[in-house]
Amino acid sequence: MPCYAETIVRIKYVRKGENESNSFGSIWAIGTYPVGREDYEIEMTLFIPTDLTKRDSDTQAIFEKNEFYSVGGKIVLGKYNNSMRLKMTVSSSTHLRILDKVPESNKCPLKVSLVGIAQEVPNEINDDENAVFDMSVNDYVGKDYKFNVKIAYPYLESRFRYLKNVIRGQESVVFVVGHMEIIDDDLFVYAKDINNIDMVNKRTILDENGLQTSSTKANSAWSKLLSTYKKVFKNLGTNSNKNISLDDISSKGQDNLHSSKHVRIDNADEVEDTVVDEVDSRKDDYGGYESQSEGNVFMDNKGKKRSNHDYKKGKIHATRSTAHKSSKLSYSNNDEEE
Question: Which end of the chain is more exposed for a tag (fewer CB within 10 A), N or C?
Answer without folding.
Answer: C
